[in-house]
Specification:
The radius of gyration is 16 Å and the shape is globular. Strand 11 and strand 12 form a beta hairpin. Helices cover 22% and strands 27% of the residues. The protein has one domain: 3-Layer(aba) Sandwich (Rossmann fold), CATH 3.40.50.880. The chain is an alpha/beta fold. It has a 7-stranded mixed sheet with strand order 2-1-3-4-13-12-11.
Length: 209
């Protein structure tokens, strides 16, 4: 059981105009919460969600400006990164306006790189795609079957690794979901992925430290 006594969920304000859609999805689950950058709220929450819209360098700059990077790295409760939020969990990313590598949170080993376009493979990867190679042991995937379709919008992705609990294919395989200790991530947008996204958020809200 969790020993934390704060609110059930803290949603970190990582910037981006579309993050409000995540709050609406949570509201449909009966979870009323606001974006926060308050260290005490984040530290004591029973679960923490790190959404992300935009580019990795912008999101990391915002987290650094708010002095939240050391705090996020130290969290012991379940943490879920969504889209760019998932990518921020890795050691680094190639996504920046200056084309310089970005140091990220470093709680999951690996580096995020740009998807490779090709014949019939457009970048950004935008639209519905299927989950494959699901790890049935993960509580995040309870009730979610292989070949379930989710909604993706991204140009960068993390490689498939030992930390992948689901992958996807868009010209190349990439991690659709990851888990490492108490840190988890979904590259797709649960708030736009209908029944599957709803179930994922339900599963996350059932997790305890």
């Amino acid at each position: 059981m969790s020993t934390l006594h704060g609110q059930p969920l803290a949603v970190i304000d990582s910037g981006g105009a579309n993050i409000g859609s995540v709050l609406f999805a949570l509201k449909r689950l009966g979870i009323e919460t606001d974006l926060t950058s308050d260290p005490e709220v984040i530290q004591t929450a029973q679960r923490v969600l790190l959404p992300g819209v935009g580019a990795a360098d912008q999101a990391m700059r915002r987290l650094n400006d708010q002095a939240l990077v050391p705090l996020i790295r130290s969290l012991k409760q379940p943490v879920l990164g969504i889209c760019v939020g998932m990518q921020l969990l890795f050691d680094g990313s190639d996504e920046s306006a200056t084309n310089e590598p970005v140091d990220c949170l470093g709680v999951i080993p690996g580096r995020v790189t740009r998807l490779i376009p090709g014949e019939g493979v457009r970048v950004p990867h935008m639209g519905w795609n299927r989950l494959i190679d699901l790890d049935a042991r993960s509580p995040l995937l309870t009730g979610i079957q292989s070949d379930s379709h989710c909604f993706f919008v991204h140009s960068y992705a993390a490689p498939v690794s030992q930390h992948s609990i689901a992958s996807c294919q868009h010209g190349q395989p990439f991690s659709a979901m990851v888990s490492h200790g108490n840190f988890h991530g979904a590259q797709f947008h649960p708030e736009r992925s209908a029944v599957i996204g709803h179930r994922l958020l339900e599963n996350f809200m059932a997790m305890t430290a």
